[in-house]
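Q: What would this complex look like in 3D?
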Amino acid sequence: MSFAFNDRPGLAPETRDRILVIARSMGWTPSWRARALSVSRALAVGLVIARPPDTLRADPFFPSFIAGVEGVLAEHGYALLLQLVASGGTGDSAYRRLATEGRVDGVLLTDLHVDDERPALLAEIGLPAVIVGPDLEEPCWPAVGVDDGPGVQAVVAHLVSLGHVRIAHVGGPDVLVHGRSRRVAWASALMSAGLEPGPFVEADFSAEAGATATRQMLELAEPPTAIFYANDLMAMAGIAVAASQGLSVPAQLSIAGFDDTELGAHLQPPLTTVTTDVVGWGRAAAVRLLDLIEQREPAALGLCPPSLVVRGSTARAPTTQVPAS
Amino acid sequence: MSFAFNDRPGLAPETRDRILVIARSMGWTPSWRARALSVSRALAVGLVIARPPDTLRADPFFPSFIAGVEGVLAEHGYALLLQLVASGGTGDSAYRRLATEGRVDGVLLTDLHVDDERPALLAEIGLPAVIVGPDLEEPCWPAVGVDDGPGVQAVVAHLVSLGHVRIAHVGGPDVLVHGRSRRVAWASALMSAGLEPGPFVEADFSAEAGATATRQMLELAEPPTAIFYANDLMAMAGIAVAASQGLSVPAQLSIAGFDDTELGAHLQPPLTTVTTDVVGWGRAAAVRLLDLIEQREPAALGLCPPSLVVRGSTARAPTTQVPAS
DNA sequence: TTGTACGCGTTATCAT
DNA sequence: ATGATAACGCGTACAA
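A: Here is my prediction, written as structure tokens for the whole assembly.
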């Protein structure tokens, strides 16, 4: 029986072998259902994705993230339970159900809102959880820190070194921590470079919103010479808007993204952006969550820092002012 | 007890109410683990994704598909178990494990290869499965038909009506059924239009491969005046390649994609493509699979047919031959 | 080493 | 017809 499989001490080797042979010959595999019941663990972790489908479609985050998570989970015999919540909320009820039904032993939290009530909810329920996102004010909660700061700083420094002075930002929703943190990093990087913050438009990470925001930027009396977008998708839409207005990128307008989408490298011009180790986050988050579930000491985990990828969409700032509109 | 929840006959209404009230006051929820054990069902279905992470990242298919699947499953109290297999195979062992451990009651099959051995494997194991993909030779197997034919035909018809004669195709891997089916549809559409098949390059759905294929096309002695790509990602990369070679799209080269990625609509020029109801496939696949698992008669399910979206990347064929290179 | 109680909802059986 | 009771599924863990 189970001793054989778990290779426990106190069992004659030959007996164990005999059992294993017979078991194999019968095609026996431990039933996961029974196992889950007896150890009173689900042997699964949940990932609730609360995002409008449209934003989700073009986002390279989740596939990579899930790949990282799943790799670790599989090694430990855990399964990944995916749940999408369509509505605008953060899916509280989904988490609650997952927890009370005992379907999962822990959950991963992404797309955290500022003042997100999910951590409190999960603490109340007593469900282990790992937050994936930029460091919060309360660092006590287990989280894999995804500090966008260095990446953003690298972009701004790059643009500053090219002589840009009016560096704009098209951000994600400010209620999302990773939207806000990128904006804050952008603002503080400008400040520490001695520049005043350029124009800022809040968008929602979608191409549509990126395009609209770009149009707004270009209609300004004093348009920026460089725009930094909170993700590649918006940046790519931005390049298209500039092109459609006869503005040449990067000669007249420099554009930088964030995420390093595959397509970005193959556009014309190829997109300057920031690579982030999303698979690594996934792995780290999974390791941390399993440590939490199995009450192990949290292992130290190394994450690749974000790194700037300079490509063709950024160049020296134009010496003459770009005429408005 | 369970009679109350399942609303079985043979129980006085007032007793049932009393039980429910007490249960609620105690915050009781049926344990999913015990339930799964006693009904000897996992109450979950599996989705094994066997794809290189890079191809996965930029693909809008899975997020939409999963959204569709998950919506249906949640309604029926089923969970979605996600598994990614990194290696090049189709993840046979992953399916086998899922089945023998009893973690799932059925699986969804995507990215089917020609001569895929998974259907046979699953039949042998006795695990209900629904294939998502173009109709196969053996229509006996439960599948949600994703017939790309009409969409491809619409694209070709559109290009033909614009006067194009040399219509090329950059396809997906020919070992994948949806790669092959699009190529076949393209070839037969050309044939029925009385045109000889234009040049064909097999790629792998990635932007990189799309770009390379496009370069090959444009180096031909007699380059095509229109290229139809098996997905938007390759098409977008194709537009960029053309642009970088000083070829104007659509004036000198028409380009069409397949999938209707969000970004496609916001590029310059916006991409002509085919919308497919991926969320609908997800829903249909889930419904079908649950019917199969619960041994119901398969419900008829309506799928939106693919539809052509004409945008700016296609135009009348140039009257003068495009000079090579 | 071997046997047995346990976890927990479901369902069939047995009284009432 | 209605309520109560027991057996079941299947590993696990502890006692014997």
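A: To summarize the key features: Residues 23 and 29 of chain B are 8 Å apart (CA to CA). The first strand of chain B starts at residue 44 and ends at 50.
Q: Very helpful, thank you.
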